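=== Structural record ===
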Amino acid sequence: MTGITRSSEGLDPRRRRILFRSWHRGIREMDLIMGRFAETTIADMTDAELDTFEQLMDLPDPDVLAWITGEQETPPEYRSALLDRLRAFHLKLGDHR
């Protein structure tokens, strides 16, 4: 079972694919973090943000999870405004659990 609540109806094929991939990461924690973030932001992401999000999804889950949670510093080549938004989104969700 996924946690997806947003329908992909009305999304272009690229956004549909990204939304699906964000909920099928391999590590459940990443499904929840990236899936929820994508559900909330996918419709409004720019092409550049979609590029960045896809690049993050191509990286190993343990690395990205460590960057999001602050367990490891993000390497300079992966620092981005989108990753900052993803991290802030995760922290905001953590405050409401």
About this structure: The chain is about 60% helix and 0% strand.
